[in-house]
Design goal:
By secondary structure, the chain is an alpha/beta fold. The chain folds into three domains: 126 residues, GMP Synthetase, Chain A, domain 3 (2-Layer Sandwich), CATH 3.30.300; 88 residues, Non-ribosomal Peptide Synthetase Peptidyl Carrier Protein, Chain A, CATH 1.10.1200.10; 262 residues, Rossmann fold. It contains 17 helices and 19 strands. GO terms for molecular function: phosphopantetheine binding.
């Protein structure tokens, strides 16, 4: 990492450094910090007038930090200084264990009362910190996401945690050191089975270049495979992300996924209440991993590391969660019901993870009567009324469907829109008017007066809906070739009856 600071303190410039008074041991090697500073000055060819190197962190978190001062004839632009220091760090003739993690440009180096560099003053200068912006994540491909996860494991705790890591960020710019590089090489070999020489990692230090180098070496490594050993059916199954797992239909879907031999993990996310968490844990399946959160939160409440991990590993997303209230307007429900859909698009985009969205046959409520029944097509031609104070849940489903259709057009995501009709059966919510109608009709042994009713009643058994959904999920996977498609699935009763 390189950075600049216009002014830290007003002290006179020191023209030289003394050697031999700052010896440390790093990775088992004797290191003269002033020797590194001297090498920097020599390599700069008088573009730098002073340099001082210090140590931050301890043990495996040790980083070498250089503070430098440019000559009285500095480069014209601040950004050019940063570029110059990046290039200087790469060409300075230092052994691997003496590589610098961070270079910071100061107007002057602070001095103590004896006229020497005030090391204590330098030690308290706050280093810029590195982090990963949410927006950057959606621009990383699978190899870059995998590599970024390993970077975060090997970077020292003292690494700069505010610097925005992008495709162009290199490992040392993010605060890494030679030991970080050695550990990264080891992780790549252990986890990916690819041997990458250190010199190649150094030559390809940016996240993007290193990922490309990794892919190149992976292809080369294939020549060492035992092909009969490769032709073995592994135990790894699909990893599913599921929202709304504690709801009535969702529980049926969850149970179907748990029983499926093709599913190895089900990550239930945006679980709000302790009661819901206890119900999920009570199922007792090792496949279920529960994540607390909320549909209204960024990343649905997942921390950035967990979100990145799921984005790099998941095979299917099942968005089955929503805030349900037939009294609330669309504006009240938008953040939870539509915002959560947008969050899933961001998570799915890098690897084009298929999204199964549990919509509702209620979106047909916006179709003119003379055009009913609604076929398994887009509802784009049938927008909701401008007044969003009523039908909030239906409008939110309509908007989410359109959002996902646009995600397919822009990013090639594979989308399946499930539109179940009136779901009835044991466990259906008491707020469902059709299920209530059936319940009290049975209790009273009476049928409702249907005079004046118009249309069809589609009642479908909850278990049948769940079984069909699970079957469709089994045929979905991350699209490796070409863009995905949008598929609309109506789950309804073929024996629907008309009224009157």
């Amino acid at each position: 990492m390189v950075t600049t600071a216009q002014s830290v303190a007003r002290y006179r410039i020191v023209k030289s450094t003394s050697l031999g008074d700052s010896q440390i041991k790093l990775s088992g090697q004797r290191v003269e910090l002033d020797e590194i500073a001297h090498a920097l000055l020599q390599a700069s060819k008088e573009k730098l007038t002073n340099a001082h190197v210090c140590v931050r962190g301890t043990g495996t978190d040790t980083s070498l930090v250089a503070f430098v001062v440019f000559s009285n004839d500095p480069l014209d632009e601040e950004v050019d200084r940063i570029t110059y220091l990046k290039q200087l760090r790469q060409r300075v003739p230092l052994p691997q264990y003496m590589w610098l993690s961070i270079m910071i440009s100061l107007e002057e180096l602070p001095l103590n009362v004896n006229g020497k560099v005030d090391r204590k003053a330098l030690d308290v200068i706050e280093l810029p910190n590195s982090s990963v912006d949410d927006q950057v994540l959606v621009d990383l491909d699978e190899d870059e996401m995998t590599l970024l996860g390993m970077w975060e494991e090997v970077l020292p705790d003292t690494a700069a945690k505010g610097l925005k890591i992008t495709k162009d960020t290199d490992l040392f710019e993010a605060g890494g050191n030679s030991l970080s590089l050695v550990r990264l090489q080891s992780f790549i070999k252990e986890r990916l089975g690819v041997q990458v020489p250190l010199v190649e990692l150094v030559e390809s230090c940016s996240l993007e270049a290193m990922a490309r180098r990794l892919w190149s070496n992976r292809l080369v490594s294939s020549s060492h495979f035992t092909w009969e050993g490769e032709a073995t059916i592994g135990d790894a199954g699909r990893i599913v992300i599921l929202t709304g797992a504690s709801g009535f239909l969702k529980k049926q879907v969850l149970q179907g996924l748990v029983l499926s031999s093709t599913v190895s993990e089900v990550h239930c996310i945006a679980v709000r209440s302790q009661t819901s968490m206890e119900k999920l844990n009570a199922i007792g399946s090792p496949k279920i991993i529960v994540h607390t959160g909320d549909l209204t939160l960024p990343r649905l409440g997942l921390d950035i590391i967990t979100a990145r991990s799921l984005a790099s590993r998941a095979n299917i997303i099942v968005h089955n969660g929503a805030h349900v209230s037939f009294l609330k307007s669309y504006s009240s429900l938008k953040k939870a019901n539509v915002g959560s859909t947008a969050e899933f698009v961001r998570l799915a985009k890098p690897r084009r993870i298929p999204i199964h969205f549990i919509s509702s046959a209620g979106v047909a409520g916006f179709v003119p009567r003379n055009e009913l029944p609604l076929r398994e097509v887009s509802v784009a031609a049938y927008p909701p009324p401008r007044d969003s104070s009523a039908h909030g849940c239906q409008i939110a489903k309509w908007v989410s469907e359109r959002l996902l259709e646009k995600a397919n057009q822009q990013y090639g995501l594979d989308i399946v829109l499930h539109r179940p009709t009136g779901i009835v059966g044991e466990g259906a919510p008491g707020a469902d008017i059709l299920d209530d109608l059936l319940h009290y009709s049975r209790q009273l042994e009476l049928a409702p007066d249907m005079d004046g009713w118009d249309g069809y009643l589609h009642l479908v058994d909850m278990e049948a809906v769940a079984q069909r959904m699970v079957a469709l999920l089994a045929s979905s996977n991350v699209s490796e070739t070409g863009p995905g498609a949008v598929r609309v699935v109506h789950t309804c009763n073929a024996g629907a009856f008309s009224s009157p």
